[in-house]
Amino acid sequence: MSESGVRQRKKSSGGGGDGKPRKVKVPQSSSGQVSQAQHHRMWARLVLIVGICVVVYFTTFRTREKKFATQRETLELRSQKLDCSKPFFEEIAKYSGCIPAHCGRFVSDKIVGGAEVDILLNLAKQGFRFGGSSGGASILDLHSGALSKESQFVNIYKIPEAKQIFTAELINTYKHVKEKVREAVSEQFKLNKDSLHLTHPTFFSRLTNETAKTIHDEYWHPHVDKETWPAFHYTTLLYLADYGRDFNGGRFVFIDSDGKHNKTNVYIEPKRGRVSGFTSGAENLHHVEQVTNGMRYAITISFTCNSEHAMADPQFFIEEDEEP
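Now predict its structure.
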């Protein structure tokens, strides 16, 4: 091959005149454009993936909210029928006259009068003067005498100074209100009233925003009454204070399942004199919101169909100390 041919091949292969290969320079502007395009594609894919995840989450795990009764309303009656949970229905089917026409819940502001509420609220306030939980959830059980005091319970009937609370007016009012609530449960679920028996625990409650000190102070956990208290078949609450006025937070919340992942929170806003009632099975999973300020007063009045778990009206007695 001629010398000129060799030089021509070196030129075509990028070689220099000295026989060393020459470096091919890529324009910086072209390399930057390629890198920027890749960067944009990466972020576009990431945004698309996140968007898909958000859509899947909110269509698969969705919580709705529904107000069943607000504080501003004055309700003659509002009710909702539900299918009974299987274990609840199988058990209650054993008690003739106590089988509900349907399971469910109801609210009424026309069962208990304002004067009766005033008397019972005064009782609660006077009773809690002799005790009160240090953790924000206090109870007063007139049937057993149990009264929260710091992290324990004392017997209010052992406190001589408490004797002035238990007047004839109080006794009659408490019994009369309990009977009116029992009649309401009987009417709403189509029961024989005589088959409904007051059961333990039936108690006054006072909730505040104090930090919980014991498990008894943690009232906000979702639960089923029948699982917590096996004797329960029908649960009622009489509210003695107003949501949004006397306290904030503290709404009563039913948790209804709408399939495997979806649910609806159904709210009752407490109101003075308002009565809510419901079947105590798993169809009425519920909890109480934490109180954020103020004091929430209420009475839980519970009923059983099993006469073996019935309890009598409170005697309102003060036991005298035994003579030495």
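DSSP finds six helices and 17 strands in the chain.
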